[in-house]
Design brief:
Blueprint lengths: L1 E2 L9 H7 L6 H7 E4 L2 E4 L6 E6 L8 E7 L2 E7 L12 H4 L15 E3 L6 E3 L2 H19 L4 E5 L5 H14 L4 E4 L6 H11 L9 H5 L2 E5 L3 H4 L1 H8 L6 E5 L5 H4 L3 E3 L6 H14 L5 H7 E2 L1 H8 L4 H8 L3 H13 L3 E5 L1 H4 L4 H14 L9 E4 L6 H7 L14 H11 L14 H9 L5 E5 L3 H4 L3 H9 L3 E6 L12 E4 L5 E7 L4 E7 L10 H12 L11 H12 L12 H7 L2 E2 L28 E2 L18 E6 L16 H4 L7 E5 H6 L7 E5 L4 E9 L6 E5 L5 H4 L15 E8 L6
Parallel strand pairs: 1-8, 9-10, 9-17, 11-12, 11-15, 12-13, 14-23, 15-16, 17-18, 18-19, 24-28, 25-27
Antiparallel strand pairs: 2-3, 4-5, 5-6, 7-8, 7-19, 20-21, 21-22, 24-29, 25-28, 26-27, 26-29
Helix pairs in contact: 4-23, 5-23, 5-24, 6-17, 11-14, 11-15, 11-17
The structure holds ligand MGD (2 copies), iron/sulfur cluster and molybdenum atom.
The site of molybdenum atom has 3 residues, from loops.
Length: 745
């Protein structure tokens, strides 16, 4: 139950604007006005119009036209011109406005009384004073490292940069990570080590220009449907090869589906490399001119003979040999991967095995080629470069004194306010809470009490905190239910800023709707916190999202992700998004650009590295009791993660099963006497849950699949991590499934 505020002045917005010395500045506009392509206009004067903006769900970065009537968004249609989606959108995009008007929006800050669990609505002044008092108390009592934040790949780059700078430079927080750890860390580390910078090389046109497309652990038909539309536009009758234990929607549409044993990708990819080398199906000229360590790699893969690879992967020798031949015969071969690779105990090396295949066959830097990691959230790429979590702003290194000096001088701050150490990654922050080292946690735009691996532990962990702040659009999320303080955030459509999609395209969010009640754009929440914390001076120049965009440009200068050529938001709008890099003084001739056309990589010697390692055993092997392998992933194109947004749409709700379900092979189901839709038990060493059986042929015998969108799923998962990226290996663990009567619930 939430106690409501009665007094209208309670909202105190004018007071807040005054506090920020912005009575006529952007915060007042934020509260009173909406932005449109016509510029900022007072609400009442806004004519009925349309404005296009990038979708706030997935990393495809489609552009949507929002229709406005009487100053309200009333409808939405996909943008016909935008060089990403060309008039297409998936169900989430079509329904993007609905979640804004949900009844469980946080409309004011709330404070929870711990014993009764009751939430009380408070004004911003009280909320901010509480935030500062509690967090400062913790810092003073337990030291600087006792506070941490967990952030997101789902809001604007300007907001991420302000949060990262505020927390780390202003508030003295050392440990802060983003939920992109769950998603992109393996790809980011793989690129950094192989290319010298975290740089996905492709442009979506490559989907149309390949004659062979290899998808590894990726199900774009469900997770990136509009990227898949681009594949469907390919006029070259391409061969599509899918590596996935499950016969996914994408695998069904493929030329070949390689249903490998889970996590045998590394062995398969080394086996393919060996066949290509043995047959001399490699690009010697490219290897010599542009890479390092090929001979060592060659020696490494020699033991991966087809006879070894076949039983390890479950593929026939013929299938493996044909796979290699298809790669050889392709003129333009592209390799695409997503979570089936990244979410693994050996995700970085698996991603690099794909990079190695592209390098050794010269399939990079040309149309229709590339070793291409597809990102997940709308601004995963912004988070990787500018969130100031794993990297120092602009893809730099906290450990490098030159990098720290550079950022300090660009921002005009004392270099000593920049931590000279790396933040703990996400899992270590959680460990830190368990160990009693972290006492205060600030969670922004992510829902870890549902999405983090091994929930049974996580929920206990979170209770150990002395103070938990959750900043979200909704007061009802699983994580907000534990919060001592909830800060109400505006969502997509209620604020402006930029995001970066999978092909490195900077796109624009706009404000087309006023946030409800007291909810504020995260940007202004951070500004207010800076004010109350007493470090506002450091952020005087960070006036509005638009001014921060100019700061981001400065921070990017000279880096591979240089965006100094982008003038302002209007230019992004005009050009249909702009891919990085785009340097000052350059002319924007092509709407689509790929990296490495000159064969030069980001290391000082400009060469890419072959990086490889022996395969590792499964973190949780099967045993007699837990003899099923549980896979997890996306269920339908209508569901988004922890469902805080997609469950709000009656239309989307029609497009996915209401109850949690487990997909099970028909032979296994028959053996266990399990019928369609029957409630069954799924159990791992961590937890036991109930789910409805969905009997399928798409999951192999001995395996089961559960979508991540239901809160029970991560009670089952096993907390194993890639040792380089610390990305959780969500995809597999040992489980058992049984006919319900066998158990007492
Ligand atoms: N509808 C919808 N779309 C989304 C999202 C969403 O929640 N809903 N989330 C977005 C985000 S943040 C992300 S990161 C992406 C994720 O996009 P994807 O990675 O494409 O989606 P997943 O279903 O998580 O995983 C892909 C596949 O990996 C397979 N897999 C599991 N283990 C292995 C293995 O060992 N080897 C191989 N080769 N494959 C394996 C699974 O069977 C699954 O089909 O989707 C984005 N798009
Ligand atoms: N078992 C299993 N678990 C998984 C995965 C898997 O494949 N299997 N995939 C993992 C992956 S790849 C990912 S990316 C994660 C995703 O996990 P999460 O990031 O936890 O999932 P979301 O539901 O997207 O959470 C985003 C939160 O931000 C809020 N929000 C939305 N917009 C805004 C905003 O503008 N401001 C603020 N302040 N809040 C906002 C939403 O209401 C929601 O509560 O899940 C991971 N978990
Ligand atoms: S594919 Fe992704 S970006 Fe495009 S409409 Fe769907 S959710 Fe939005
Ligand atoms: Mo993700």
């Amino acid at each position: 139950m939430i106690k409501k505020a009665k007094d209208k002045n309670f909202f105190g917005t004018e007071y807040l604007a005054q506090l920020l010395h912005q009575k006529d500045g952007p915060l007042m506009q934020e509260l009173a006005l909406v932005s449109s392509p016509l510029g900022k206009l007072p609400k009442r004067l806004l004519p009925d119009t349309m404005t296009n903006m990038v979708c706030g769900f997935c990393s495809t970065g489609c552009s949507l036209k929002v229709h406005l009537k009487n100053n309200q968004p009333v409808n939405l249609t996909p943008d016909l011109e935008y060089p990403v989606n060309f008039g297409e959108a998936c169900p989430k995009g079509w329904e993007a406005l609905t979640p804004l008007f949900a009844p469980d929006r946080a409309v004011s800050p709330y404070i929870r009384e711990r014993t009764s669990g009751k939430l009380t609505a408070v004004d911003w002044d009280t909320a901010l004073k509480t935030f500062v008092q509690r967090f400062k108390f913790i810092q003073e009592r337990y030291g600087k490292e006792s506070l941490a934040f967990l952030s997101t790949g789902q809001f604007c780059t300007e907001e991420m940069a302000l949060l990262g700078a505020l927390a780390k430079f202003g508030m003295g927080i050392v440990h802060g990570d983003s939920n992109t750890r769950q998603c992109m860390a393996s790809a980011a580390v793989a690129y950094k080590q192989s290319f010298g910078f975290d740089a996905p090389p492709y442009t979506y046109k490559d989907f149309e220009e390949s004659d062979v497309l290899v998808f590894v652990g990726a199900n774009p038909c469900i997770a990136h449907p509009i990227m898949w539309q681009r594949v469907c536009l390919n006029p070259h009758q391409p061969k599509i090869l899918v590596i996935d234990p499950r016969k996914t929607e994408t695998a069904m549409a493929a030329t070949r589906h390689y249903s490998i044993h889970p996590k045998s990708d590394l062995v398969l990819l080394y086996g393919l490399a060996r066949i290509l080398i043995e047959n001399n199906w490699i690009d010697r000229k490219f290897i010599e001119a542009h890479t390092i360590d090929f001979e060592k790699f060659k020696a490494h893969v020699m033991r991966f003979t087809p006879d070894f690879v076949s039983p390890s992967t479950g593929l026939s020798v013929e299938a493996i040999e044909e796979f290699a031949r298809i790669i050889h015969e392709g003129q333009r071969v592209s390799f695409w991967w997503t979570m089936g690779v990244n979410q693994s105990h050996e995700g970085v090396r698996t991603a690099q095995a794909l990079i190695n295949l592209a390098l050794m066959t010269g399939n990079i830097g040309r149309p229709g080629t590339g070793a291409n990691s597809i990102t997940g959230q709308c601004n995963a790429m912004g988070s990787r470069l500018f969130s100031n979590t794993t990297n120092l702003l602009g893809g730099r290194d906290f450990l490098n004194p030159d990098n720290r000096n550079k950022v300090a001088s660009l921002l005009g701050i004392d270099v000593h306010s920049i931590p000279a150490q790396n933040s703990w990654p996400y899992d270590q922050i959680i460990e830190g809470i368990i160990a009693g080292k972290i006492k205060g946690l600030w969670v922004i735009a992510t829902n870890p009490a549902h999405s983090w691996i091994n929930q049974s532990e996580f929920r206990e962990v979170i209770k150990k905190l002395e103070f938990l702040v959750v900043q979200d659009m909704y007061y009802s999320t699983e994580t907000a239910q534990f919060a001592d303080l909830i800060l109400p955030a505006a969502g997509w459509g209620e604020k402006e800023g930029t995001v970066i999609n999978s092909e490195r395209r900077v796109g624009l969010f706009k404000k087309v709707s006023a946030a409800p009640g007291l909810a504020l754009a995260d940007f202004y929440i951070f500004k207010l916190i800076a004010q109350y914390w007493g470090c506002a001076r450091m952020f005087e120049g960070w006036f509005s999202p638009q001014t921060v965009f100019q700061i981001l440009k400065k921070l990017s200068q000279g880096q591979p992700c240089d965006i100094t050529g982008i003038e302002d938001y209007a230019m992004i709008d005009r050009m249909g998004g702009i891919q990085w890099p785009f340097l000052l003084g350059k002319e924007l001739r092509d709407k689509e650009r790929r990296l490495f056309e000159d064969g030069r990589f980001y290391y000082p010697d400009q060469k890419a590295r072959f990086i490889f390692e022996d395969e590792r055993p499964l973190p949780e092997p099967l045993d007699e009791q837990f003899s099923f392998m549980l896979l997890t992933g996306r269920g339908t194109s209508a569901q988004w993660h922890t469902q805080t947004r997609t469950e709000k749409s009656p239309i989307l709700r029609q497009l996915y099963p209401k109850n949690i379900y487990v997909e099970i092979n028909q032979e296994d189901a028959a053996g266990l006497n399990i019928k369609q839709d029957q409630w069954v038990m799924v159990e791992t060493k961590r937890a036991r849950i109930k789910a409805q059986a969905m009997i399928v042929q798409t999951v192999r015998k001995g395996q089961i699949f559960m979508p991540m969108h239901y809160v029970e799923t991560n009670k089952l998962t096993f907390a194993a991590f890639d040792s380089y990226s610390r990305q959780p290996s969500y995809k597999i663990c040992a489980a058992r499934v049984a006919h319900l009567p066998e158990y007492r619930i």
